[in-house]
Amino acid sequence: MEIRRYILLSWFTLSFFCNASAQLNNLSVEAGMDNAAYPDNLKSKLQNTASDSTKARLYFLLSEYWADKDTLTSKAYLLHGRKLSETNYYLQALSSYYYGVYYFHINQEKSEQAFFISRKSLLHYKTKEAYLYMANCYANYAYLQYRKDKSQLMADLLLNKSIPLIKKAGNNELLGKFYGDIGLVFKNRWQYNKAEKYFVQSIYVLEKTKIKHPSRLLFVYALASENYLFEGKKNEAKKLLDKASPLLDDILPGLSHVGYYFSESLYFEVTNQYEKALSSIDKGLNLAFKLIDKYYIEKLSFLKYKILTRQGKYLEAKNLLENIIKTSTTSYSQNRQTQYYELAETYHRLGNEKKAYAWLKKLLILKDSLNRQQIDNQINQLEIKYQTSEKEKKIAALNAETKQATLIIKNNKLYNWLLLFVCLFLFTVVGLLWVYYKNYKKLIQQKVTALEQQQHIALTSAILEAEESERNRVAKDLHDGLGGILTAVKINLANFTKESHPDAKNLILQDIRNQLDHSITELRYIAKNMMPQTLLQYGLETAIKELCESIIHNNLIISFEAINIGETIPLNKQLIIYRILQEILTNILKHSYASEVVLQCSQNQNRFYITAEDNGKGFDLSKVSNKIGLGINNIKNRVEHLGGKIEILSAPDEGTSINIELDV
Questions:
Q1: Contacts of 632 by beta carbon, 8 Å cutoff, 6+ apart
Q2: Burial class for 368, CB neighbours closer than 10 Å (0-12, 13-18, 19+)
Q3: What are phi and psi of 371, to 5 degrees?
Q4: Alpha carbon of 537 to those of 243, 531, 541: distances in Å?
Q5: Of 278, 342, 505, 651, most Cβ neighbours within 10 A?
Q6: Over the stretch 289-318, which tens digit does the pLDDT of each residue have?
Q7: pTM of this prediction?
Q8: How far apart are CA 592 and CA 615, in angstroms?
Q9: How many CA atoms lie within 13 A of 283 on its CB side?
Q10: What is the Rg, in whole angstroms, of the alpha carbon atoms belonging to the chain?
């Protein structure tokens, strides 16, 4: 029980929170952060997209990936994403979240502040993605509180804030992770029955979910196995270790592997299989040294010390424990008390009572100054850890530069010979290619000219079709609406001339007046659709706002936001922008069955940005119906007419998002 007690006392926060920032599911990537190809996939997507909003999201994900690996690279990607988000309030809220991720390991106060700002900004958005980000804001804030030894606050935030939000977001992978985090809190508070309940929930959710981060499942297997061992349930612990073992080859070596080796060695220690335990410990130590993880180095080393003691190898155990004390970076005085006591006991076993007494004396001094030393050591260790990290980064950078310079010098001669050979070869080939190039250039120019003509004809045809469709609609409105009313007026006038009774004439005259009023209203409606008077009199922003208000009804809420819309946009371009928005809102009203729409229009110099998101039924972009396709084509034609770009993101039951950039 002594070894178990120490393990519980020495377990500190970073063991499970190395992957605290969640991978978002809004952008589709081939693999998660556990995959070595993950950053290259993101860079490839950056090169293949023209949308600033999509680029911003990709930059944020790259910043998140490098946050705990290379802070300079992470910061550079973060600033790129922030710059592309300047005109989009939603993306600004996301950038605050990624600032929190960036500062998570280097500045706790700034990290907490960034998560708070992001969560507050996201309260206005009722989408699955917004819920997911808010859940992670609460979760990461909770992990930061756990670093301050506020485990109860962490459990409360996860249970009452993060989990309800992540259920709304529909992300089972993060739901399973949060259950595992809560299990860890109860395990570290010696409440193994409660911890078991949440570990079981976590494993159940993660096993039935196609997860992007297998390391999360491996971590939960390891932690739950430890918890079973503390409860005395060795068989259950072995079953989980057997499940975890196949995952080792599918995940990049990391802390999840080290956690597995610790749990495995603890199982062998409990079952008195000491040689197997030492073998597992050595595997874990080798990886922990590569990862420079001092916490696991100390934890595994202490377990090794206990096993050596049980084997009667007191001298070897004593040397190992002295090295642990010498290199220990933990700020927990309970750990050092255990270490001092164990070293005194070991010296006693070796018959060196003088040394045993000296270490017992150190133990008493440590206990007397417990409160003061706890505070001082925590501050000092944080400072040392930060400075050491910065020095190691500088040393690594200098070493990399030195190696690079040496390699360049060695390869310069080879490059020069290769360059000479290439130049001779190119000189020979250029003469042959020149004649071919001239003829080929003429042919390409002809093809380009023909293609431009075809595109111009196609665009003109599309515009004419849209105009013809608009004329047909106006003609139909005039015939069905205004024509019918005026026909009724004509009939009533005929009746009026025939009627001789004054009261009857007055009634007919009143009907005629009402019908004329109706015809005036109908005429204004038709004229407004042809050329909105609000646009002419008050400008684009007011016209868009009036358009939104005219569409809002009991089952549809439209949140419109205008940012820096200028008054210098030419009228013909204002009208095209108005028609684009009219087509978007009409499509949403007719086809999406949405209850909420978020519409944002902004201008940055001569670029005009439109973002429209709804929570409707969405659709498969590869299987667009004729009705929806006609509206989308009308939008695309008008966007192309203004030299703009359009991006449509939609899937069945996931709503639709439209991002447009126009040249005004």
A1: 587, 624, 648
A2: exposed
A3: -65, -45
A4: 71, 11, 11
A5: 342
A6: 888 878 788 889 999 999 999 999 999 989
A7: 0.50
A8: 8
A9: 19
A10: 35
